[in-house]
Design brief:
The protein has 701 residues and is mainly beta. The protein has 7 helices and 66 strands. Among the domains are: 149 residues, no CATH class; 153 residues, Hedgehog/Intein (Hint) domain (Endonuclease - Pi-scei, Chain A, domain 1, Beta Complex), CATH 2.170.16.10; 109 residues, no CATH class. A 15-stranded mixed β-sheet has the order 2-5-8-11-14-17-21-25-28-31-34-36-40-39-38. An 11-stranded parallel β-sheet has the order 1-4-7-10-13-16-20-24-27-30-33, with no helix packed on it.
Length: 701
């Protein structure tokens, strides 16, 4: 190797030339040792030159892997690349714990690797004043970053922090775009690649044309998995999908912790996918506004998501893998009826007329109308799946080998049925739910049936079931949630719960903690379990089941009639209430307080009427019913006023119920004074005070 002057390019002929003397002298001695192969070299001082790694004769094949470890600085100066490496086979590896800086002429990338591995815990910056000036340009390789990568100055679509083609990038550090023009200055450009981001990626300075200065630009069948922070630069968008070179769809997987500063915009011409991923619950707000033009919303196996947005955005989505624990919230649409039509989706109506009176959500799967819980609050519709009939972890099931905890059983275990038969388990499904982050925890929170709550010795020990798991009583199957009395049968708080299905050759009643409970019956929700092998998308939807298919399955295959109301339910509940001997009081413990900000707080005991009466249907949390609110100046405040939001149920002809913690905002009363007339109270649990109620609002200060 000839001596390299400052700001010149040091050519390393990898098959024959050794460069480790650079760290001592800065002078590269040519060693034409035809019988030696270079395996690696370490640079610990500052080199005022770029390094070009090419086999003898230019592009070609390395005879063995080549590694450079940089703990010093590689500064290209007025040259071009900081490090340049390109081969057609073999591998190049750069471990950077120092500084690599691209030059001010030519393309000026900090690092250019074709078919290589780059691990960066130091700093890499682009230079350049022409087409490129990327921090890193990597093709067909792997990039791991825990340091800092910054784009340089490039014309046209230059100045990118990282351009990745057919590669993989894992980012724990900081990546920032530089200065570019048309499609330039982006933090990261992905072309048929995968980016997993735990760190921070920021778009740089570029003109505001489409595809410039964004945090992450996705072109083609690329995947971005984000649990870090992505910030849009002058291009505004944090993430932009655009089919410049490819018409294949891209995918964004949002995991817990993900943060986007700027819009997330899919290509309306391509079927891009927005997915909920990870193992922790994800709350995604702004579908149709913050997240635009996506064709598909997917829920990854084991992930739990709460996705909210405009109803128009949902009406154009294909929703796949929607499962227990997932929730959709449609802003601006107050549903009054819902029907699931196989091959079409969940049809929602709001009772009005015109084009916005009905929308269809393309929720793919084997569902029936009865599988969905749909309701509306303050003009927004919430959609979730009913909890399947499940046993909580730890529940003991009677088998031929005695009582065994459900999580310790396996397919083939023989269980003893209530009618004395012995049958094998054919499948055990399971799913863990993050209740603490669930938007509607009452739909998944376990129901505790205390030992002896049903009769002497039944249950033999405390029994925990999912809300929809049915108990066999009086010749019928009654869901656990229908039996709740708030005392001996009640829902309990847990941060997480793992539920287990037990499927038998046919639907039957087995013994769980000495209580007759149903086994699993497939009614279209098998795919909701983490270990299910059921297909999510029907192969032939045009020939799939009709709307009432799964209802007919339940009726035809159920071992007993399933009921949630009526005379049998009321007789059973009356018996259980008498056994529980729940003490009640008519005292509402009412308090009306003027707050410092001019608002008025109405607090009281609260109860769920369906818990303390034989008829279980009214499951609202009710405090007191207000007949009227009159301001100090004599003005009547309508009970359906849109500003009455916190702690209020829908208005009724004779008044409006609170939930035990209601607020009249200062915008309606001003000085915190008003005449409030009471319309009704209820029978409340004698052991509850107003402080026991769950709803809350802010400080009185």
């Amino acid at each position: 190797m000839t001596a390299g002057a400052a700001n010149a390019t040091t050519n390393v002929v990898a098959t024959f030339i050794q460069i480790n003397r650079v760290e001592k002298t800065g002078i590269n001695d040519h060693q034409d040792e035809r019988n030696r192969e270079i395996m690696s070299s370490t640079l610990s001082t500052t080199i005022h030159a770029g390094i070009t790694l090419t086999p003898t004769g230019g592009y070609g094949t390395y005879q063995s892997p080549f590694t450079i470890t940089d703990t010093g600085a590689i500064i290209a100066g007025s040259g071009t690349y900081g490090v340049f490496g390109s081969v057609t086979s073999g591998s190049l590896t750069l471990l950077n714990d120092g500084l690599v800086q691209g030059g001010s002429s030519g393309e000026g990338d900090g690092v250019y690797l074709n078919s290589g591995i780059l691990t960066n815990s130091g700093t890499i910056t682009g230079g350049g004043n022409s087409y490129a000036g990327y921090g890193v340009q990597l093709s067909y390789g792997i990039l791991s970053n825990s340091g800092t990568i910054t784009g340089g100055n490039g014309s046209d679509h230059g100045g990118k922090g990282v351009e990745l083609v057919s590669g993989t990038l894992t980012n724990h550090g900081i990546i920032t775009g530089g200065n570019g023009s048309y499609y330039g200055g982006n933090g990261v450009d992905l072309k048929s690649s995968t980016l997993t981001n735990y760190g921070t990626i920021t778009g740089g300075s570029a003109n505001t044309s489409s595809g410039s200065g964004v945090g992450v630009y996705i072109d083609g069948s690329s995947t971005l998995i984000d649990s870090g922070k992505i910030v849009g630069g002058t291009g505004v968008a944090a993430v932009l999908f655009y089919s410049l070179y490819s018409t294949n769809a891209g995918t964004l997987v949002v995991e817990a912790g993900a943060s986007f500063v700027g819009g997330v915009v899919a290509d309306p011409k391509i079927s891009d996918v927005l997915a909920i991923g990870g193992t922790s619950a994800v709350s995604l707000v702004g579908l149709g506004t913050a997240y635009e033009h996506f064709h598909t919303l997917a829920f990854d196996t084991g992930a739990t998501g709460n996705v909210s947005g405009t109803y128009t955005a949902f009406s154009g989505l294909n929703v796949i893998s929607f499962a227990l624990g997932d929730t959709l919230v449609l802003d601006g649409f107050a549903e009054t009826s819902d029907t699931y039509v196989s091959g079409n989706g969940l049809v929602l109506s709001n009772g009005s007329t015109g084009t916005s009176s009905q929308i269809t959500l393309d929720i793919t799967g084997s569902f029936a109308t009865s599988n969905f819980t749909v309701g509306h609050t303050l003009g927004n519709t919430t959609i979730s799946l009913n909890s399947m009939p499940c046993f909580a972890a730890g529940t003991r099931i009677l088998t031929t080998r005695g009582e065994i905890q459900v999580e310790q059983m396996q397919e083939g275990t023989s269980v003893i049925l209530a009618d004395g038969r012995i049958v094998p388990i054919t499948w055990i499904g399971h799913r863990t739910i993050d209740i603490a982050r669930h938007p509607h925890p009452e739909t998944v929170r376990p129901v505790l049936i205390m030992a002896g709550a049903i009769s002497d010795g039944i249950p033999a020990r405390d029994l925990y079931l999912s809300p929809d798991h049915a108990v066999a009583l009086d010749g019928h199957l009654i869901p656990a949630k229908t039996l709740i009395n708030g005392s001996t049968i009640r829902q309990v708080d847990r941060r997480t719960v793992t539920y287990y299905h037990v499927e038998l050759p046919e639907h039957a009643v087995l013994w769980a903690e000495g209580t007759p409970c149903e086994s699993y019956l497939e009614t279209g929700n098998r795919h909701s379990f983490e270990n299910s092998d059921a297909p999510v998308i029907a192969l032939h939807p045009a020939f799939g089941p009709t709307t009432s298919y799964w209802q007919r399955v339940r009726e035809a295959r159920s071992c007993a009639p399933l009921i949630e109301e009526g005379s049998v339910v009321e007789a059973v509940r009356a018996r259980l209430l008498s056994r529980a001997n729940v003490a009640t009081t008519p005292d509402a413990d009412l308090s009306i307080t003027s707050r410092a900000d001019g608002s008025i707080a109405i607090t009281s005991r609260s109860t769920i009427p369906g818990y303390l009466a034989p008829d279980p249907r009214d499951r609202r949390l009710l405090g007191v019913k207000i007949a009227s609110i009159i301001r100090k100046d004599g003005t009547l405040i309508p009970l359906d006023h849109p500003d009455l939001v916190t702690g209020w149920h829908d208005a009724e002809p004779d008044g409006r119920w609170t939930n035990g913690h209601a607020l009249i905002p200062a915008s309606l009363v001003g000085d915190g004074l008003a005449d409030i007339a009471l319309a009704a109270t209820l029978a409340y649990s004698a052991n509850q005070k107003q402080a026991d109620n769950q709803p809350r609002f802010g400080s009185l200060a």
